[in-house]
Each structure stands twice: as structure tokens, then as C-alpha cells.
User: Which sequence fits this backbone?
């Protein structure tokens, strides 16, 4: 009942509707990639450098005759997968550290926050490139690298929420009820901080997809999997002759990131509606 | 005399889908020059909305004036454009608010904020403005205006901040002052001073005051006319003596009857039995580390509890009275072992508990439970009532079936429908939430309950019900209670003895009657003198006694 109304409120917003539609299309393409374009997206299937809207190859082909549409579809899998897993890692690590830091305060807080600042003061993108270069380009190292540079912002957010929540009376009541610290952290306080975390996660996923694209663009991506960033990077040398090689995967990134941002905004509005400013002590 | 402010048939519409169509419905009232009109009502009665409508401060698109006229000295306020309204605000009518900390700009010195009022209304001579600022601050009885005006709001006390707000309101000598619960956030002694200040300003400047409050004591002290509002409508409007002495509407009578009185009979009703004390607090001290750069830049420790000793007997209720910052909440937290004490000892049921840790502390927890002040913050908004009440007992090792049985028992005791346990806290009213909070404490089967301002956030009629409930469960379950409050009248309703705290020390203890009849400590005396509506209460008591004598 309550969830139905939330969903309705989410979809009533233009941003929510547009974001869901955009992501829906991308998700459908990602899931349907194997069925739409069976076989290897790296395979040469036609003449090289066919322009878009050629018969049988709506997005054209690249300089080796590979189908761009197949690449974009299979690339969607990689981008979304990396975005999702990297975000999950960042949210998990950030939430646990932020929660502990905000709830206990004092020395614990100091230690965790100084540790967080180490990561915040190093330029994130360079750090992720460095890690990928050291561990070798693979799906795992990319996810790990993106996760490592993303968690500090979650930790700060969660810490701030827990700092204000831990003084609430219902937390004191839980202490007096003899509940363990872990239970208070994750069963009492965490549910009350979920909405900002969910919103931050949706925006973070967009950043993760951009980061992955940037890493692949520089040629540090996983060579066994086609990705949007790699396609843009590969097409850039012939940008003036075959603009679609870079532009179409670029458009896919654009749609995904915009869709995620829309969803983040709409989630923010849905989960934390500003209280209506009707007179307080009327 | 022609009215200063005239409200005729004012209706303010609420957005569609609200619980009622109008926040304010067909309200008419007049304020004459030099007169104080008090608007009284419980929360949600529409009194603040009405005041904000006069200042044209209603949030646009949410609250809309649907009908009626508001005139200030014959000038129609509702049809004025924004620019002319701005020249009126401050110059001819001004407003003060409940929470002076949020009404002041935190990053501007208070002197600059008063100065700004003068500046935006076209006083360009800087030196003259400064003179006026100092003059105003002196008129508000603020100490050393020359130095105080360079301070920031957070460096001032609550009372001083409210004086600054009044200085800003009075800067341009308006004819009408609208005061929206201006003393609700203040201590009683400060409240008495602010009320006296407003009355003095009124006499000197012939000010008309529209005073919004929920406190009949304050009404009795300052009102000429009283307007009682309920659910957005005026139910009674007459002279103060009439409304307070012979209220005609049933709702007004109910409100006045609910106002807590000083009850001296309590002591005879229930003489505390001379039993072994349940809780012994002896020579407890507790200090906090002071913030680094305080008012005087000194880094040290502030003493919150200074050598405090207090006993609570089996089945006895002890009231802890004091102003904010007196250390009463700190003492409550120390008793509940939410804070550790620096020195002294705590004995509960003959056992020393100040050093308990781990499992021993967990075994103590259920025996000392707490009832909180704010029923909106004390229940986890994401949990259903069933979980809120039963979670702790089940974690404590009680079987779910037994927890269910206990829950039904306490719900019957506090008067909550057991069918409501699958709902979330936000679906309940403030009074009901407080009952749920009490149920959560009782279900643990405690022996001592610490109630920290447990009824302060409630409307008077609800306050009365919750006090009755507390008295009832205490008698039935034989509970001891430490009842922390700033309100002497509320304390007298429920406490066997009271202890008065001042600056971290207990300055006086005794039965309510003994302390009320002959307060020994000067601070206790000032607390009793500052109680709002004291004269009215004495009159009412004399009247009640009259027929007996005849």
C-alpha cells in the first residue's frame, strides 16, 4: 500500500519517469544483447566503415568491419555490471565505516576520518589508473579501483547522518532496552538513513560508469570484454572520417548517466519530501 | 476608540487533501491601542497561521487567504502590494517568535541585526543609528549594550536573545506587536522577566499586542482580551476576567480545568512510607569537557553535577526541578547509566551500580527505564509499534508469546487499542505516542522510571491525561519515579517530594507542600514567584474556599 504510493509519486515526476525509461531501454539492450547480436561482438561481419543506417547494421561498422550496434549492446552489459558492483562495494564499505565512525565518535571517529582523508586527498582518477596499471587490466581490478576511490564520500555522508541520529531519544531507548551496539547501528539507525544512501548510490553509479569508460578509453580496460569507453578510444583516430565510431557509444554513456542522474533526483524527491511549511505551532 | 488591528471573517484555506478545509475559519478579532489580546489554543488550532496572515508571511501556494479582511488603522493589508507591505512591516507592526536562536542570523552580531532594521527603513545616518541601537538595548534591560552589541547570537542566553528580538521589533516604534509564543522556549524566571518587559513597553509606547500562547498562566498575567481558538475557529472571545473566571464555552472550561494547579494535598494523600531506599545517589559529581574557544576562551571543564546526593524510596516519586542547564537531565542520564559519573556512588536496591559493565549492566537495564520528552523523537519512525514495544523484552530472553501477553497488558494499561500495534508511530498523535513510549518502558517491568520532561511537549489537556496515567500505573505497579521537570505545578501533581537543582547542586529538598509554603533557598523562592498566573490561581483557590467558609 505504502510502497505503491511511493512508486506512483516517483513516476509522477518527469525526472523519475524519464530516468526509468532511459535506464529501462539500456537494461533491455544489455539483457537482450546475446539474443539481438548472438556471437562475438569482436567478429568482423561486414565491410569496414559502413555509415549508420546501412542495411543490417543500423549503427554502421568500424574500420575492421565489426558491427557498432553489437558493440554498444554488449558494452552495456560491461558498463552496467561494473557500475553496479563498484557502487555496491563503495556503499558497503562506506556505510560500515561511516556508521561506526559517526556512532562511536571520539577516537574511533578521528581514526576512521583521517583514514578516509588519505583517500580523499589523492586525486581519485589517477589513483584508480595506478591501481589498474599495477594489478593488470581486468574486470576485477577495474571494479576494485573504482570502489576504492568512491567509498570515502559515502562514509562521510553516512557519518554525518549517524552523528545526528545517535542523539535521538529512540537510540537512547534502545540502549536502555539492553540492545547491542551492532543491533542499534544496523537495526535502529541504519533504516532511518537509507534514503540519502540510496540517492547517493544512484548518482555514484553514474560516476562509476564514466570512470570505467575513461579507464577503457585510455586503453587500460579489460581486453576480453568490449566496453563503451574502449569503443570511443578506438574510434578517436578516425573521428573525422567515421564520427559514429565514437559518437554512438558516447551517446549510450550519455543516456545511461543522464538516466541515473534523473533517477537520483527523483528518488531524492520521493524519499525525502520537504516537509510542507504549514505553521508549526498553529 | 477605533481599533488598531481589525480582523473580520478571516478564513485561510489549507491545501486540498488536508484533514480540514480551513486552517483558520471565519475568525474576527480587534486589537485596540494599548491593549493585549491573547489568542489561546492547543497545537493545530490555527493561532500561528492567523498571526502570520496578519504579517502576510503565509507560505505562498500552500496557505491561501480565502475570505475576510485585515485592516491596520483602517488600511487594508490583504490588498497591499509587496513594496508597501515591506514599509509597514517593522515600522507599524512587528513580530517576535518562539525560538530566538533561529529567528536571529547566526553570523551577524546582534548590534548589526538591530542596526539593519533601521538601515532598511531608510535611516542613513550611521552615528544616529548606533546611538539608537544602544538606546534600544538599554531599554530592553540588556547589560552593557556597548559591549553586548558586538556579540553573536550564540554567545547570548535565551532570554537575552529574546530581548534582542524585541529590540529589533521595537526599533521603529510600531503600533502593533505580534508575539507568537515568545516565552515558550524560555525558563520560568526568564519568562516572567520577558513578560514584564513587554508590559512595560506597552505602557510606555501605547502598543497594541496580539499575543499567541497555549499557557493560561501567561494569559492570566497579561491579557486584557482573550480569544480561544479550536480547530481554526474562535469558540470564545471576551474580556480576560470573564474568560478566566466564568468561561462560557465547554472547550474553554475544559482547557482551564486542565491547567495544572499547585497541589499541596499530595503529601497527605500518599505519605511516603519509610522504607529502604531503592536508589541512593550520594555525593555524585560529573563534569564535561568545555568547548575549546568558549565565551572567555578558557579551556576547562564545566561542572554539570556538583556533589549531588538524593534518595528515592520504594514506590516514591521524587521531582527534580530546575532550569535548563541546571544539571537535572545529566543526573537522570547518570542514574540510567547512559553517562558515567566522575566521583560518588550510585546504589540501586542496595547494590552498587556505578561501575557495572557488560553483562551485569545488561541485567540492570530493564529495572531502570526512561520516558522521554519528545514523543516524536523517542520512537523509531521506521518500526511498527509492535516491534517498538516488544523488541527489547524478546532480546532480553522472553519468549515471543510471553512478550505478546505483556504487550497486551501494558497497552490496556496505557489505553492504546491493541489493534493499532501494526501501525507506524507517525500515524499517532503526540499524546498517543507518549503512551506508546510509556508502554515501551513498562513492558520491561522496571522498578524505577526516570521521566525526563515527560509531559512538557504536550498540550495541557493531553498533559493532564498522561499525568493521570502515570499516577495510575505508579500506584498499580508500585513503581518509583524520578520525575524531571521545569514546571513546579506539574511536579506538584505527581511528586511526593521535590528536589530543586540550581547550577549542578541540589539546593533544597522536601515535600511539595513544605517547599511551597516556606522555600528556604532564594533560588527556590524566585522559581515560585516566577510561576505564570500565580495571582489568578490564588484568586481561584480563594473562590473555591469561599463556599466552605460560608
Assistant:
Amino acid at each position: 500500500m505504502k510502497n505503491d504510493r511511493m512508486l506512483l509519486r516517483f513516476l509522477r515526476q518527469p525526472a523519475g519517469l524519464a530516468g526509468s525509461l532511459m535506464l529501462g531501454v539500456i537494461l533491455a539492450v544489455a539483457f537482450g544483447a546475446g539474443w539481438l547480436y548472438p556471437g562475438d561482438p569482436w567478429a568482423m561481419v561486414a565491410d569496414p566503415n559502413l555509415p549508420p543506417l546501412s542495411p543490417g547494421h543500423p549503427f554502421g561498422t568500424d574500420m575492421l568491419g565489426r558491427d557498432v550496434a553489437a558493440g554498444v549492446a554488449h558494452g552495456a552489459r560491461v558498463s552496467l555490471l561494473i557500475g553496479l558492483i563498484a557502487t555496491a562495494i563503495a556503499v558497503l564499505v562506506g556505510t560500515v565505516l561511516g556508521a561506526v565512525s559517526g556512532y562511536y565518535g571520539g577516537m574511533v571517529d578521528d581514526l576512521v576520518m583521517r583514514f578516509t582523508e588519505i583517500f580523499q586527498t589523492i586525486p581519485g582518477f589517477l589513483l584508480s589508473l595506478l591501481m589498474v596499471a599495477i594489478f593488470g587490466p581486468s574486470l576485477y581490478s577495474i571494479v576494485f579501483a573504482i570502489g576504492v576511490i568512491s567509498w570515502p564520500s559515502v562514509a562521510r555522508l553516512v557519518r554525518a547522518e549517524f552523528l545526528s541520529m545517535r542523539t535521538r531519544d529512540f537510540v537512547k531507548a534502545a540502549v536502555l532496552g539492553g540492545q547491542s551496539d551492532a543491533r542499534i547501528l544496523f537495526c535502529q539507525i541504519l533504516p532511518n538513513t537509507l534514503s540519502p544512501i540510496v540517492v547517493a548510490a544512484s548518482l555514484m553509479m553514474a560516476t562509476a560508469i564514466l570512470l570505467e569508460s575513461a579507464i577503457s578509453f585510455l586503453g587500460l580496460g579489460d581486453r576480453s570484454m568490449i566496453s563503451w569507453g574502449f569503443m570511443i578510444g578506438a574510434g578517436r583516430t578516425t573521428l573525422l572520417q567515421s564520427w559514429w565510431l565514437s559518437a554512438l557509444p558516447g551517446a549510450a554513456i550519455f543516456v545511461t548517466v543522464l538516466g541515473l542522474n534523473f533517477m537520483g533526483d527523483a528518488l531524492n524527491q520521493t524519499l525525502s519530501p520537504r516537509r510542507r511549511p504549514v505553521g508549526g505551532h498553529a | 476608540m477605533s481599533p488598531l488591528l481589525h480582523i473580520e471573517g478571516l478564513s485561510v484555506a489549507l491545501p486540498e487533501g488536508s484533514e480540514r478545509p480551513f486552517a483558520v475559519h471565519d475568525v474576527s478579532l480587534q486589537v485596540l491601542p494599548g491593549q493585549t489580546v491573547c489568542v489561546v489554543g492547543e497545537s493545530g488550532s490555527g493561532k500561528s497561521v492567523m498571526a502570520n496572515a496578519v504579517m502576510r508571511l503565509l507560505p505562498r501556494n500552500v496557505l491561501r487567504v480565502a475570505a475576510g479582511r485585515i485592516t491596520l488603522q483602517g488600511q487594508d493589508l490583504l490588498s497591499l502590494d509587496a513594496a508597501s507591505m515591506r514599509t509597514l512591516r517593522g515600522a507599524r507592526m512587528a513580530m517576535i517568535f518562539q525560538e530566538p536562536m533561529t529567528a536571529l542570523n547566526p553570523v551577524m552580531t546582534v548590534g548589526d541585526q538591530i542596526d539593519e532594521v533601521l538601515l532598511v527603513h531608510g535611516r542613513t545616518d550611521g552615528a544616529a543609528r548606533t546611538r539608537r541601537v544602544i538606546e534600544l538595548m538599554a531599554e530592553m534591560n540588556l547589560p552593557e549594550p556597548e559591549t553586548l552589541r558586538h556579540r553573536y547570537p550564540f554567545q547570548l542566553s535565551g532570554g537575552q536573545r529574546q530581548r534582542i528580538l524585541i529590540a529589533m521589533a521595537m526599533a521603529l516604534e510600531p503600533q502593533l506587536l505580534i508575539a507568537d509564543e515568545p516565552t515558550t522556549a524560555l525558563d520560568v524566571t526568564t519568562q516572567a522577566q520577558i513578560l514584564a518587559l513587554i508590559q512595560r513597553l506597552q505602557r510606555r509606547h501605547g502598543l497594541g499586542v496580539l499575543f499567541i500562547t497555549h499557557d493560561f498562566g501567561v494569559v492570566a498575567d497579561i491579557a486584557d482580551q482573550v480569544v480561544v481558538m479550536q480547530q481554526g475557529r474562535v469558540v470564545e472571545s471576551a474580556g480576560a476576567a470573564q474568560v478566566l473566571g466564568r468561561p462560557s464555552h465547554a472547550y474553554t472550561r475544559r482547557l482551564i480545568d486542565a491547567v495544572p494547579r499547585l497541589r499541596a494535598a499530595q503529601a497527605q494523600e500518599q505519605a511516603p512510607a519509610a522504607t529502604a531506599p531503592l536508589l541512593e545517589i550520594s555525593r555524585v559529581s560529573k563534569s564535561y569537557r568545555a568547548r575549546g574557544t568558549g565565551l572567555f576562551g578558557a579551556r576547562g571543564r564545566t561542572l554539570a553535577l556538583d556533589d549531588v546526593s538524593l534518595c528515592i524510596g520504594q514506590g516514591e516519586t521524587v521531582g527534580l526541578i530546575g532550569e535548563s542547564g541546571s544539571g537535572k537531565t545529566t543526573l537522570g542520564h547518570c542514574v540510567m547509566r547512559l553517562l558515567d559519573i566522575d566521583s560518588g556512588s550510585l546504589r540501586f536496591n542496595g547494590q552498587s551500580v556505578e561501575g557495572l559493565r557488560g553483562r551485569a549492566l545488561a541485567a540492570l537495564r530493564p529495572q531502570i527505564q526512561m520516558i522521554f520528552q519528545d514523543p516524536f523523537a523517542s520512537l523509531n519512525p521506521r518500526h511498527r509499534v509492535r516491534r517498538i514495544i516488544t523488541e527489547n523484552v524478546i532480546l532480553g530472553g522472553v519468549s515471543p508469546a510471553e512478550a505478546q501477553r505483556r504487550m497486551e497488558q501494558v497497552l490496556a494499561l496505557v489505553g492504546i487499542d491493541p489493534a493499532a500495534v501494526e501501525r507506524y508511530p507517525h500515524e499517532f498523535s503526540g499524546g498517543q505516542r507518549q503512551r506508546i513510549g510509556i508502554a515501551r518502558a513498562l513492558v520491561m517491568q522496571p522498578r524505577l522510571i526516570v521521566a525526563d520532561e515527560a509531559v512538557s511537549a504536550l498540550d495541557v489537556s493531553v498533559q493532564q491525561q498522561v499525568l493521570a496515567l502515570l499516577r495510575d500505573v505508579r500506584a498499580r505497579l508500585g513503581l518509583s519515579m524520578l520525575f524531571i521537570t521545569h514546571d513546579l505545578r506539574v511536579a506538584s501533581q505527581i511528586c511526593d517530594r521535590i528536589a530543586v537543582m540550581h547550577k549542578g547542586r541540589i539546593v533544597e529538598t522536601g515535600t511539595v507542600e513544605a517547599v511551597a509554603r516556606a522555600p528556604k533557598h532564594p533560588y527556590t523562592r524566585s522559581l515560585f514567584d516566577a510561576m505564570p498566573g500565580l495571582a489568578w490561581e490564588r484568586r481561584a483557590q480563594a473562590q473555591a474556599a469561599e463556599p466552605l467558609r460560608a
Notes: The interface with chain A takes residues 14-15, 23, 43-49, 52, 59, 62-63, 98, 180-181, 184, 212, 214, 336, 338, 362, 365-366, 368-370, 372-374, 377-383, 391-392, 395-396, 437, 440, 444 of chain B (CB under 8 Å).
